[in-house]
Amino acid sequence: MIPSLFLHVLSVVIWVGGMFFAYMALRPVAAAVLEPPQRLALWAGVFGRFFPWVWASVALILLTGLHMLMTLGGAQAAHYIFTMLVLGVLMMLIFAHVFFSPYKKLRRAVRDEDWKAGGAALAQIRRLIGINLSLGVITIAVVFGGRAFAG
């Protein structure tokens, strides 16, 4: 169970930490110092490098989480574990939507130099990453709170 837990937590750190960095550090600076064409190209490039790591993290989080759930007895596991599972799957669905819809639009807009469409796509990505970051922090709180109250 220790290797699964390590991979699980490492994947969460990569994903949630990456969202925190992008949302709280990179976004405000990029908005302050870059014009729209450069800012949109930057974000398309950043997401192009970050999203493969997120896909790997999502796969590992799901696989290791299900492995640990089965090791803990499946349906007999603590309620907070099921809350974590539901929130995690919701985050994964939001990420998949970001990847297949607004990120695809952002890449196309940068390629075509359609800065208005790119700005709209980036705004949608920003909102969804903000939601996912919030859900990630809530999930972490649920886990630690659940563990503290479970014993």
TrEMBL record:
Record's keyword terms, sorted: Membrane, Transmembrane, Transmembrane helix
InterPro entries on file: Cu-R_CopD_dom (IPR008457)
Positions of transmembrane segments: 6-26, 46-68, 80-100, 128-150
Superkingdom, taxonomy of origin: Bacteria
A GO CC term attached to the entry: membrane
The keyword Transcription regulation belongs to this UniProt entry's keyword annotation: no
UniProt entry tagged with the keyword Transmembrane: yes
Domain named Copper resistance protein D: residues: 45-143
Name the record gives this protein: Copper resistance protein D domain-containing protein
Organism expressing this protein natively: Thiobacillus denitrificans (strain ATCC 25259 / T1)
Lineage: Bacteria, Pseudomonadati, Pseudomonadota, Betaproteobacteria, Nitrosomonadales
